[in-house]
Amino acid sequence: MADTKTFHLPDLGEGLPDATIVEWHVKEGDTVKLDAPLVSMETAKAVVDVPSPYTGKVVRLHGAAGDVIETGAALADFEPDPNAKQRAEAEPTGHHHGPKKSVGSPAPDSAKKVVASDEGGEVAEREDEGTVVGAMVSGNAVHVEQAASIGGVKAVPAVRALARKLKVDITRVRPSGAGGVVTLKDVKDAAATGSAPLGAAPARAAPAAAGRHPAPELAEPGPASAPARTPVSLAGKPVRTAPPSQQASGQPEQLKGVRRNMARVMAEAHASVVPTTLVDDADLHAWIGKQDITARLIRAIVAACKAVPALNAWFDGKNLSRTLHPHVDIGIAVDTDDGLFVPALRNADMLDGAGIRTAIQRLRAQVEDRTIPASELSGYTISLSNFGMFAGRYATPVVVPPCVAIVGAGKLSHDVVAVMGGIEVHRRLPISLTFDHRAATGGEAARFLKALLDDLARPN
Description:
acetyltransferase activity; transferase; Dihydrolipoamide acetyltransferase component of pyruvate dehydrogenase complex; 7-stranded mixed beta sheet; CATH 2.40.50.100; PSBD; 5-stranded antiparallel beta sheet; 3 domains
């Protein structure tokens, strides 16, 4: 019997705990060459093509499109070709397989994590790294999940992102995946043939032949059929006096990718940070001409960081240590259909208004088409959430460790302001500052907020 090798999912980013299968490029029984495309995996950061670690026969695939595979879990089984050149055991595969073991006594079993290798999962302690909105943990289980059905279309977020990028109407794409799932190949084919362009009129049913009337379509009876809902019963009483059934409340849907990571990170932040929020309004009445509000916000944050460095810092709650940063890298919260991304605007303290705008546009474009490098999604020193672009005046933004503070900008308004000798109507921008009270005092936060407001109040 040929020797069988199991390929375990490597770490596709910086400490990412799992990835979702988007599309297999092989099937069981296929012969594949070393480094040929094996599978496309969606992480919380990007869609990654994983190459084959062997030349040989694919014996088994551990999962289908839509399944979530955790880092270190089995991904595929191979029968390597004994006559073909294989990768040396120590030769890199192009993907990070976890940090080396630290020197010293081993960690307790409960604290160990799985680090993937081509030969199997090696148990070792690994450090958490930065991700889309914070740090993540790892495991070694496989969760079977299905592509989300939105708007009547079953597809994973990566496929929807590709459809938006290629300007393909995903509702018009013919699915070829199991269970009617739209795959990456389906979207690429639709883009190549132009069969499903955005903005095209929906396809119409062919008219019936003259003199003929189509037979009515009858719904097949079954357990899924349900009577029409009404507010009262036949007796005139309220229909429901108990909690809704599963059918009435909808089916649970497993979170994937960015949203899955966001849920983990928000829970960790809530459990570890001691948040305190200050709010005030920036008076923009003195502004001269039309100005870029986001660029002014970033400039004001930089000014406040220079005035009060305590909030442009990282805090280590375990060791009770603080790192003050001489540079200002601002995490810009970007809301997408797939979830929350926080790319880092590097060296914001060195950029002028035009440089800030160019950098923001680049980051947003990379987020929208999911091409942003993993290195751009971590390591920021303070955050900005410009939620007022949609609605809301004040908020309590979440501080994600190791950062100490996050600034929230609300919706612009025109307010009546008392001035010497009467009243005036001024344009004002609501500002919310949430900080980790373990790392900064209330006085430091208040002085930071004042410096920010003062800069925003300047004419230009």
